[in-house]
Specification:
Blueprint (H helix, E strand, L loop, with lengths): L1 H19 L5 E16 L4 E7 L3 E9 L4 E10 L17 E7 L3 E9 L1 H7 L21 E9 L6 E8 L13 E9 L3 E10 L17 E10 L3 E17 L5 E18 L4 E11 L19 E14 L2 E12 L31 E10 L1
Antiparallel strand pairs: 1-2, 1-3, 1-17, 3-4, 4-5, 5-6, 6-7, 7-8, 8-9, 9-10, 10-11, 11-12, 12-13, 13-14, 14-15, 15-16, 16-17
Length: 375
Amino acid sequence: MFKKMLLTLSALTLLMAGAANAGDANWTFYGVGHVSLNSLNNGNDSQLGLTSNTSRFGFKGTADVSTDLTAFWQFESFVDMMSDDYDGGTIGTRNTFVGFKHATAGKFMVGRHDTPFKALGRKVEMFPDQMGDFRAMTMGWDNRLGEIAAWVSPDWDGFNVFAAYQFDQGDPGDEEKMTAMSASAAYATEQFMIGGAYEGASAGWNSPAPGGTYGDGPKSFRLVGKYMGSQFDVAALYQTNTVQDWDYNTEDDVIWVDEKSSVMGVGASFKMNDKWNLKGQMTIANWNTDAVDDTETTDIDESDTKSTLMTFGIERVFTQNVLAYAQFSMMSDGDNSSFDIGGGQSGFGDSVGGTWDGDTWQDPSGISVGTVVTW
């Protein structure tokens, strides 16, 4: 463990020393330290603990190539400020890439990066990397992909496009490729923003059915909108997902069936003054939108497949780089639906789900008090 940490620090020292002597290259060291004290309840029992919520550091820089062309790069790593078994030798785990920016053609980059689908959703989140972040409800559709090539358009009077393609993650000779693509388009002014995104993967991401056939790869659509006033911000998100799974028809032939799910949410923020903000957000996830007419779930009411996450919080802004917050989150699960509060892809450092009492899921809840420092 000590050797891995020493190697990490040595690599960072060499990187900083190299950047400092890079001539006409410009670079910046940045980061986020985000920790919270949380009381989490699974419906029966509570636990108090500390978590590190997507704390991170990174380096980014640019170098002029010509009048219209600039090279840029970024190297960003996750930092767990709490765990005693964190692998300190792993670096470059977050958005890490190199690219070129042209004055009229936009930016092209390769490496590891948040998908356009995920990046668009981040624009309307009221509780980023905190308990209550809606990514806990989006069923794995907020991703950071490696081996991608991406293009970001210039700002065309408020309109922009972001597109990315992930190269094949399978082995040469595989029957189906394992590729993915993601794209978003958005229009923004000083007061409002609206956008849409699509993300899909190739058939190789499915497991083959008996007989070796493959269904269509998973896909998802997302729509977002946000109003930004002098005191009020209001935002909304809608998402629909389709994943295929194999089944047998009445002739016992293998068929591929669409399994659909959806997520919708709305949030608001009220700026009381320069120091205090009030926020709230509600997210509803339905893991089976076909429950009413699905032959496999005829005994399940559609309301039983829904979960609702509600979060309320208050922020204290000390400076541009330091804030503290307190919040309360509660999940209301259906009889056949269960989601965790935070954790996983949400960025929140820990999670808790409801317990099963034999008939229904008990509703989890939590209280979180945290601080965020950026540089």
